[in-house]
Design goal:
about 140 residues; alpha+beta; 5 strands; globular
Length: about 140
């Protein structure tokens, strides 16, 4: 809920685990990582998210989608999956959605490390027009 200039988050839930198909009988950790990072855009998870919000409303809880969350280690979180997830949320759901980043390493040093991010309108336009690269 957006109260003046403060975003209040009262509930959160993780997406179900996505198991990537095994390739030639071996488990690929990189594939697992990529599937997990793309979870917010996965069609089954979008349906799951809508169902969870519906159930929260049924028990009279505040239930508005304000974004998604991820964890980081020592501030390392900006990558193509992060950008694609946030672009998806801002384009498909609401331009005001945020990505909450919990830095586990910094939190373990004694104070909770949470940061919220949005893509700027200029970045959204550049990304949509394929004028953004990681190079």
């Amino acid at each position: 809920m957006d109260a003046k200039s403060t975003l209040e988050i009262t509930n959160s839930f993780p997406f179900p685990a996505i198991e990537p198909p095994a390739t030639d009988g071996h488990h690929d950790n990189n594939a697992t990582s990529n599937h997990a990072a793309a979870a917010p855009r996965h069609k089954a998870n979008a349906l799951y998210q809508n169902e969870m919000i519906k159930k929260l409303r049924e028990v009279n809880a505040d239930a508005n989608n304000v974004g998604w969350y991820t964890s980081a280690n020592l501030g390392n979180f900006i990558n193509m999956n992060m950008i694609e997830n946030q672009f998806y949320y801002q384009k498909e759901l609401n331009e005001r959605t945020v990505a909450i980043v919990h830095d586990v390493s910094r939190s373990s040093q004694g104070s909770l490390s949470l940061r919220a991010f949005r893509l700027s309108p200029a970045f959204m336009l550049a990304y949509k027009e394929n004028k953004f690269t990681t190079e």
